[in-house]
Write a structure and sequence with these properties.
This protein is α+β, with helices and mostly antiparallel strands. Helices cover 32% and strands 19% of the residues. It is globular and about 50 Å long.
Length: 120
């Protein structure tokens, strides 16, 4: 049985396509982590990846220290993928929200990517 998110994602993927000059910025969200990829659909190649596993976040051992939220992590992932894209001379992308609502972590990732210099 297919989940609702996968059905929505398939519907969206029929309409959007990534090229070498304007790749698709794809988002995947698991329960613990968030991932972003720049994909050239014409060649079938992933040009760049980023995730919150690559973030270097400050970790303190004190029990009362505030924890980093998932939304802050998502914004960091967006900024990292934007840096990687600008290093590869990519300014414009097509945003693929992966069947998720444009809300919360997905929105934060998009705003982080825009803050980093990507246009979509």
């Amino acid at each position: 049985m297919k989940t609702q998110r996968i059905l929505i994602h398939r519907k969206v993927r029929q309409k959007i396509i990534g090229t070498t000059q304007m790749p698709r910025l794809s988002v995947f969200r698991s329960n613990k982590h968030i991932y972003a990829q720049l994909i050239d659909d014409l060649k079938g190649v992933t040009m760049a990846t980023s995730s919150d596993l690559k973030l270097s976040l400050p970790r303190s051992k004190t029990p009362n220290s505030p924890k980093i939220t998932k939304i802050e992590k998502a914004q960091g992932v967006g900024e990292i993928i934007a840096k990687v894209a600008t290093a590869k001379k990519i300014k414009k992308v097509v945003f693929d929200r992966g069947g998720y609502k444009y809300h919360g972590q997905v929105k934060a990732l998009a705003e982080g990517a825009r803050k980093g210099g990507l246009i979509f």
